[in-house]
Amino acid sequence: MPDQSPGFNLYARARDCLCAGEVETKLSLVDALYADWQEGRLQRTPIVLEEVVEAGHPPRPELVHPRKLPRRSLTTPEGRRALIHAVAHIEFNAINLACDAIYRFRDLPDVYYGDWIGVAAEEARHFRLLQARLEDEGCRYGDFAAHNGLWDMALRTAEDPLKRMALVPRMLEARGLDVTPGMIQRLRAEGDDATVAVLQVILEEEIGHVALGSRWFTFICESRNLVPESTYFELLGNFGEGSIRPPLNHEARRRAGFSEEELARLDGICGSR
Predict the structure, then answer these.
(1) Model pLDDT for residues 146-158, shown as the tens digit of each residue
(2) Could you tell me the residue ranges of all domains in the chain?
(3) pTM to 2 decimals?
């Protein structure tokens, strides 16, 4: 029987991961969350927790508006380091988003929480792989400025898991499926095979993460008697259609749960720009 103390409450533990500001502490807490869930030690007893407005993060990197981030060429070592850092920052934020999806939404089936605990653990592993690449290149996470766009969307979708699944996994994270192959191609041309290998691992596993977003978006739509496709495009129109830009990775998006009808409509959005 799971321990009833706060230390074994799923929501409290997810919040601890979310709020941790020190990088290694956050990673260790995610590892422990995953292990305890796998061993059946966590329980979902209702608990009152203070709302999280800002996810925990270290003092560096400096967070700036996206337009203030300089553009760098991948033909230079500094440009490649900046790209690795940018992807590492995305993965760090993705840990927070997965933990927030557990902590914030509390009336879904057990398998939902198992899915997002698994995502948090994989995002932590992705971050560690990129952190190692940064160290190989003589720098560290925090050495470049970054932006906070992923967490901003978490706050915009905080009141509704339907919006969260549509606009984080199925919009922002799906964008990663579109752009990563191009990054891999450019890095391979520059001979950076080590980073290419890491990005290939991340791309494959991120398809699964977006697929979970599709799965739970559809589940919530059906529980509310909503049509998933029309609901998705309504939410895109209200919150983030501007994030849909070519090229679209049709193969990856199909594997991640996008229907042919959705892909056709997304192509239409891209073509109208």
Answers:
(1) 998 889 999 999 9
(2) 1-103+111-147, 157-273
(3) 0.95
